[in-house]
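Consortium newsletter contribution from the modelling node. Members have asked for a concrete example of what our holo predictions look like. Here is one, prepared for the arabino-flavin-adenine dinucleotide complex that several groups have been discussing at recent meetings.
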Amino acid sequence: MRTEVAIVGAGPAGLLLAHLLAQDGIESVLIEARTPDYVLGRLRAGVLESSTVDVLTRAGVGERLHREGMEHSGIYLQWPGRRHHLDFVELIGESVTVYGQTELTRDLMDARQRAGQRSYYEAADVVLHDIDSEAPSAAFTDATGVRRTVHAAAIAGCDGFHGVSRTSIPAARQRIWERTYPYAWLGVLAAVPPSTDELIYAWHPEGFALHSMRSESTSRLYLQVDAAEDLADWPDERIWDALALRLGHGQDGWELERGDLTGKAVLPMRSFVSAPMRYGRLFLAGDAAHIVPPTGAKGLNLAVADVTLLSRALRALVREGSTRLADDYSESALRRVWRCTHFSWWMTSMLHTSRDEFDSRLQLSQLEWVASSTAAATGLAENYAGLPIEFQGAPS
Ligand code: FAS
Ligand code: PHB
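And here is the predicted structure:
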């Protein structure tokens, strides 16, 4: 079969790219390894930057987001005896919206359905061919066992960290930067109204904790645990006790409400960047090219920024035969990727405790500085809530 753009991976990056291309009348074929329910069942990101909300609104897929999303003016930074509110709207005039990645993915799947374009779920053994030519193709075995090949003008690798796209680029043409952290997040979904109006990022000698949410009736919470932690060692009671301790239950009369826990998982923490994000007619976007620790709430937002730039490049390439944006894509996307990689590392390093007393004193000093200096608070706000899609950063 033939199409204009073959997209490997139907997570948020692949689905949004398909939608943005369709808005420009560009046809795509989506090739996804899993079932729609499996993709929707993955509990992941929760916070959308204002630039992400703008992209989704302009693309006509923001209606439920505006109806059900929870707009937050900022976050709380917490450490024993202190809880400090950072007001992003006051600092930089931007807010963030809490809207689960599952809901965003559902909205994009509905849009794909309405577009009536071809999507192959449960596709197996995806292999990319001739990616360094002007006639690349993606071969796969569809859900009925039929081997198919999609010929396209370009291939978008949106298949996440474990996908086949990044590894289809010759290793000699690729650079990888990676840092793994000695801790992980134990994430839970709790059937209990949030005990806070906005997210609480808490430093504690026992470990980091985050109180997020998904709705007025559902909380999303995370605990720092060892990288090799066994979930079986964490019964519900122990999870709630650790969350209560680290989030400051009882401090200034604040209480953490408990409820039934579901969706437990231990999430590894890593920083990972691969460059270039383009090789011939293969273009990488989202987790296929980069991974950030979730402390900065950047992963999903970076994927949105990548595909916003990529959709413009592919439109120019496919419609006008112009390669300028396609040639610039990797460098433009990587400027924002490195900015978010640094910020995610900075937030992670500030908030995750080791047993090292010197590190702890540095972290507490950094938290006090952010809480007392408008300049420092503005820097955090800019990175967390205010990065433009076309982040220019330092001239290369
Ligand atoms: P995804 O990984 O979402 O999607 C890739 C898709 O490609 C998947 O559907 C996969 O099934 C498919 N695929 C893989 N291999 C394939 C193949 N060979 N052929 C066809 N399809 C293939 N970000 C935050 O901002 N906050 C968070 O709290 C947060 N928590 C996370 C927790 C976990 C466990 C993970 C893994 C990530 C988390 N992230 C978080 C980051 C996450 O939200 C990603 O940034 C986001 O899913 C990126 O979207 P995609 O690039 O579309 O990648
Ligand atoms: C979430 O709600 O899942 C979430 C929010 C903020 C983060 C990470 C995860 O930094």
